[in-house]
Amino acid sequence: MSWLQAFGAGVEAFLAHLGLYASFLGRTIKRMGSRPWYGSLILQQAEMVGVQSLPVVLLTALFTGMVLALQSYIAFHRFGAESMVAVVVSLSMLRELGPVLVGLMVSGRVGASFAAELGTMRVSEQIDALWTLSTDPVRYLILPRLLAATLMLPLLVIVADMIGITGGYVISVLMLHQNPSVYIDKTTLYLQLNDFYSGIIKAGFFGMLIGLIGCTEGFHCRGGAAGVGRATTRAVVIASMSILVSDYFLTAWMFG
């Protein structure tokens, strides 16, 4: 029965961790309805999440669009359907690759940063010191980060979608010698507003997950410097897995 006990302990730990995330999210949302809102901190975190993530997001989106166009052309060339490359690139970027890849990149950068910053503040007792100064740590530290991640990720995805589609256009027209007018016509002909909105909704949800998981792991960090390292690792791994798992359920809900 030892394996059953171990399985039960694992399920119990998972549910307890899930409850911790839900409770922490509820505490943070509860603070949104009252002041102070620390607008300057929200803008500061938005700059860190959005502007400072642009280089890695642009590079990822550009080469994703380029390699997607190249691989699609190779496959469609066997059936004489090269004109469909534009459809595959645009739909893939808007619906899936844009929000998912941006979410994964940002989780590795921003989620780790949130966990490391808050974890360091926890083990050095800076968070406890905020209580002595009559400052709510959740409102002062967590709320700006959660709002910044939730609001900035959709903007990053919009930029990534444009860059990815542009990268596919460059490869298709300049390297594969497709007709530029046909590429643009195919891109716009089969796209619908629902394709765009679905990616934006996913991006907002992924941003909330990244902010929530990174902040929760850092805020409840224990064990000194080693604990900060473990919290940072957990934040990145759990956020990345949550993005991939939730992407399936969001896609099934939107297009099922």
Describe, in short, the structure shown:
By secondary structure, the chain is an all-alpha fold. The protein has helices at 2-31, 39-49, 54-77, 85-123, 126-132, 137-175, 180-189, 193-219, 224-255.
Structure in words:
This protein is mainly alpha-helical and 256 residues long. The protein has one domain (40-255). The chain is 86% helix and 0% strand. Helix 1 (2-31) crosses helix 6 (137-175) and helix 6 (137-175) packs across helix 8. The longest helix has 39 residues, at 85-123.
Question: What are the key terms here?
Answer:
256 residues; mainly alpha; 9 helices
Treating each run of at least 4 consecutive H or I residues as one helix, how many helices? 9
Assess the beta-strand content as a share of residues.
under 5%
Give the distance, in angstroms, between the N- and C-terminal Cα atoms: 41 Å
Main beta sheet: none
Work out the radius of gyration. Answer: 21 Å
- Low-confidence sequence ranges: none
Oligomeric state of the chains present here: single chain
